[in-house]
Amino acid sequence: MQPFLKQHFAVKFWVKLDKTSKETHDMIKEAFSGATVGRSGVFEWHKLFREGREESKDHDRPSSGKTNQNVSRVKNLLNC
């Protein structure tokens, strides 16, 4: 499970209650004291859910930067 998935669901819930991004961030800090997602993360999730996003899991990052050719180049550079 993603480390911040519970907080992700909480943001989705508070968006449905018409809370602002700032209110949502404040409630996240209060409810999940300790390891919480940062302000920019809460604001981004808030925006996505307000715009109609339904999924609560992050999309995977593109792996286009990791090719066999790039891996070989880096290995060669490190072995110089």
Automatic annotation (TrEMBL):
<feature type="region of interest" description="Disordered">
    <location>
        <begin position="52"/>
        <end position="80"/>
    </location>
</feature>
<dbReference type="InterPro" id="IPR052709">
    <property type="entry name" value="Transposase-MT_Hybrid"/>
</dbReference>
<feature type="compositionally biased region" description="Polar residues">
    <location>
        <begin position="64"/>
        <end position="80"/>
    </location>
</feature>
<feature type="compositionally biased region" description="Basic and acidic residues">
    <location>
        <begin position="52"/>
        <end position="63"/>
    </location>
</feature>
<protein>
    <recommendedName>
        <fullName>Mos1 transposase HTH domain-containing protein</fullName>
    </recommendedName>
</protein>
